[in-house]
Design a protein that fits this description.
alpha/beta; Rossmann fold; Helicase, Ruva Protein, domain 3; Zinc Finger, Delta Prime, domain 3; 3 domains; five-stranded parallel beta sheet; two-stranded parallel ribbon; 16 helices
Length: about 350
């Protein structure tokens, strides 16, 4: 049975392939709707599509509108105007909100957009039951961009390296994700830094990643939680001190630890309902990334339910003591970690 993660990755791959094929063949629909949670990929393919549609034509053939700037009568006038010494006129409309509600009039017009005009809509959210959405599905292309799977992200990292004539192992690619996270916008920036840093190298190593890539505090929190589960006080404190060196305040670190245990408690509760799997966790928690679900499922298994509840009570009590000055902030978190990184029972 295909899971949520595979379905999400398949949607993004299908959307990217549609745009690639349209560009390669030079055959375009008159209406495109790009939407979804994977903002980086959506933005990249929006640019690819619009650039290809314009094909070097005069900028006066491109109209951009956003939010409440979208007024249908004016857009229709533009759409009905022949392009200026070009193959087509392009209208790029972003975040109109008309694919959630109030888009009936737009839907009617989309059925008669001139052959010389291509309308590209980019929306952060849509209602697939709306008339506007269904109309684009009938006369154009609805393209959804959802978070990629771990495997897809590793392949993407490999492609970025190959373009620059470099090699990277799957293990190192996974290490990048572990350090930076799986949010594509952040990954793209960190990969650019990494490729510039390794300009004179043929192979990118784990050491290169450690030296140049910014560690997400969340990645340290995950490691710290693993150390607590393993009863490794030294490792737990080392990760805490690393975060202090990164400039994070003790109170913020405690809040992150508290959030981690709260999420584990919620995931644990879902799993204890019986026959629950990754799909149930993603749906119940609202996780967009299967990677995120996998981490919390793995970590929560190391802790009994009552232990998670007690840890949350203890962290709440400590937060009050720290905020009221009854406990030194740095020392308070240290003592908390020493206490809670004893072997979990």
């Amino acid at each position: 049975m295909a899971g949520i993660a595979k379905e999400a990755a398949d949607k993004s791959r299908a959307s990217m392939n549609v745009i690639k094929q349209n560009i390669e063949t030079g055959t375009y629909a008159n209406v495109y709707l790009l939407f979804g949670d994977e903002v980086y990929l959506l933005d990249q393919y929006k640019k690819k599509l619009v650039d290809a549609l314009m094909d070097g034509a005069d900028a006066m053939n491109l109209t951009k509108v956003a939010d409440k700037e979208f007024r249908l009568p004016e857009i229709i006038d533009i759409a009905e105007t022949m392009p200026f010494f070009a193959t087509r006129r392009v209208i790029l409309a972003e975040n109109t909100g008309l694919f959630k509600s109030g888009g009936d009039a737009l839907a009617e017009y989309l059925e008669r957009v001139p052959e010389s005009t291509v309308m590209v809509f980019v929306e952060s959210a849509v209602d697939k039951r709306s008339k506007a959405y269904k109309t684009v599905g009938k006369v154009g292309k609805c393209l959804e961009f959802t978070p990629l799977s771990q495997q897809d992200i590793k392949q993407w990292i490999g492609v970025q390296c190959k373009r620059e004539g470099k090699q990277i192992s799957l293990e190192t690619a996974q290490f990048i994700i572990d350090q930076v996270g799986d949010e594509m916008q952040t990954l793209s920036k960190e990969m650019e830094k990494l490729l510039n840093f390794t300009m004179n190298k043929d192979v990118i190593t784990k050491e290169d990643v450690e030296e140049i890539c910014v560690m997400k505090v969340t990645s340290q929190i995950f490691k710290l939680t693993d150390a607590i589960a393993a009863g490794n006080q030294k490792a737990a404190l080392d990760y805490y001190y690393d975060m202090l060196e990164l400039g994070e305040a003790p109170l913020y670190i405690l809040a992150m630890i508290n959030r981690q245990f709260d999420l584990m408690l919620q995931v644990k509760t879902i799993l204890l309902r019986g026959h629950a799997d990754r799909n149930d966790v993603m749906k119940g928690m609202g996780f967009k990334s299967p990677y995120q679900a996998d981490i919390y499922m793995r970590q929560c298994k190391a802790f009994p339910l009552e232990y998670l509840k007690k840890t949350l009570r203890d962290s709440a009590d400590l937060e009050v003591q720290m905020k009221t000055g009854l406990m030194d902030m740095q020392m308070g978190v240290e003592l908390f970690l020493v206490e809670h990184s004893r072997k979990v029972k």
